[in-house]
Description:
This protein has a single domain, classed as Helicase, Ruva Protein, domain 3 (Orthogonal Bundle), CATH 1.10.8.80. The chain has five helices and two strands. The chain has helices at 13-18, 25-41, 49-60, 68-72, 77-87; strands at 19-21, 65-66. Strands 1-2 form a two-stranded antiparallel sheet. The chain is globular and about 40 Å long. The chain starts with 12 loop residues before the first helix and ends in a 14-residue tail after the last helix.
Amino acid sequence: MRSSRPGTPEAPDFVNRWVNWGAGPRGVLTLVTAAKARAILYGRYHATVGDVQSVAKSALRHRIAANYAAQAASVGSEKLIEMLMEAVPADRKYERPAATA
């Protein structure tokens, strides 16, 4: 979700340009819980990338706020989420930052 937060190294250019604030830890929890619920509804015991993509707009639309520049360009939260899903590869692996002493 760091990709949805402006000013972070992971944020695409359009996030820095159009997002006022992005999804935080509670947004991640909501996304994961919704994806797991969808998987159970479809008879599976694990969530897939498809589950996450299916629930992303519903789970995150109120957690990503478009700024005035985005609103002027007719870009809302749902469009930003679509753009994020295209910009961030589904199989991207994240490494934890090295601990500093």
